[in-house]
Write a structure and sequence with these properties.
heterodimer, A: about 200 residues, mainly alpha, B: about 425 residues, two-stranded antiparallel sheet, globular, transmembrane helix (chain A), notch signaling pathway (chain A), membrane (chain A), Aph-1 (chain A)
Amino acid sequence: LAGTITENKDGPVQKYLLMFGVLVSVFIQEVFRFGYYKILKKASEGLKNISADETALSMRLLAYVSGLGFGIMSGVFSFVNTLSDSLGPGTVGIHGDSPQFFLVSAFMTLVIIMLHLFWGIVFFDGCEKKKWYALLLVLLTHLLVSTLTFINPHYGISLVSAYIIMVLMGIWAFFAAGGSCRSLKLCLLCQDKDFLLFSQRSR
Amino acid sequence: MLTFMASDSEEEVCDERTSLMSAESPTPRSCQEGRPGPEDGESAAPWRGQDGEEDHEEDPDHYVCSGVPGRPPGLEEELTLKYGAKHVIMLFVPVTLCMIVVVATIKSVRFYTEKNGQLIYTPFTEDTPSVGQRLLNSVLNTLIMISVIVVMTIFLVLLYKYRCYKFIHGWLIMSSLMLLFLFSYIYLGEVLKTYNVAMDYPTLFLTVWNFGAVGMVCIHWKGPLVLQQAYLIMISALMALVFIKYLPEWSAWVILGAISVYAAMVWTVGMAKLDPSSQGALQLPYDPEMEEDSYDSFGEPSYPEVCEPPLPGYPGEELEEEEERGVKLGLGDFIFYSVLVGKAAATGSGDWNTTLACFVAILIGLCLTLLLLAVFKKALPALPISITFGLVFYFSTDNLVRPFMDTLAFHQLYI
């Protein structure tokens, strides 16, 4: 696929191959996320023995870690070459492309990382509670965000909608991880006993 | 001249039995377990430490400690497993640091990516007209390299067997001297050239002298743990840089592959030979005279440590050994991991994806090896799994993933 894409100079064909490649990649990522869940589930007994701390590794923690891992790898792989090129000489957008290339790439990478994090939490929660619609929604939103990036460089739509999806997923993940409006309020007003600033609150 | 010395020291430094100990203070123990040293011991005394010295007096203790009476076997097993994860993380830090130093140097200092001759151990050139010829030359280079390693290893074992400990001491000291002074002088020179910073000779002399002298003291005598670890990381990185510079491209990859196969083979053979019935026969005689010599130098009880093994070719060489307190990883492993990642950084058309993929692959391999270590409870070679993953990831990322990711980044598509 990669070879065909790079060799094929035909515009539309290349574009379609690329789209196909992106969709397949998204599918593969979600399949691996599911596979990772399965492996972690099987290994959670053994992991409990290995971990030296007394606190058991909960599935929620593993969901967060796995989402973060996916996000970091995805973000790094997308962005690190752009970053290293940005250190070199050059003028952005000299051939008529958008001069905000680097900025948008950076913001897009950020949103992808956060999205993977939230997707991880929601996905694992869905698997635990056998809520299969959660898995489907994760897959669909992932596909949506990826296909929206096809309309770059019209950044307005793709970037803004990606951020909106991120906020929505964030809220979903918050509730999936066991948060509630009450706990949020306690946290923000520093009245939560487990929260750091509990003892510092003004009386 | 440089070529000769470089190749010379590559043997020597790999024999150096220096250790990297963690900053963690151990709980007091009655027996002193494996202090620095022997990475190699598969479990048998003879192979522990080519570097004679402290090994022997530990060995009886080691055996005693591992089977301390009164400690319920279940607890021991649990303790081993429990220490597994923490020590995996503790191993990640030095391995990562070494790789970072190597990659940073490769990416910034042009000297280490310029072709400036080859080691005498890889005499066949790779500037050949046809692909087949190039492949043949790289395979021949690998064969020569591996046979040199085998010969040196046998030589060192013979030295150890016939108690020529002074020779081994001298060799170790010579090799660390050369690494700490000559190679770091060259490294410093190249870094200064890259950044166009002028340094006068007196300052240079002072810097190199201090660096080298403190290094010698830390490594061969006493020193703060963190400093000792830092020096070991630096010399591993320097050694890896030498390899990256002087090994031609294809030869480097074939050598990496061959060395991991070789380590695996040697370990298998060693395991087969070391069944309980032959245990006694393989033990080298206990040498009391070495005892008092070395005990004071490394008096601390065991910490998770990293010790320098000889180059492979030797049963139990780059082996890890898990003790109650920690895991040991040989410096040869550090060097070859860094060579792999450095080569990926140097030749992957300036691509960071390939470098990162290899880095992650090596860490995953290390994790798996440590997991197997916890399962088998025997020393294992650290190279094969990591290097295999590293090579697989390198070639697949460079050829499949890189063009795809480049196109995606160009069009600002995100997957």
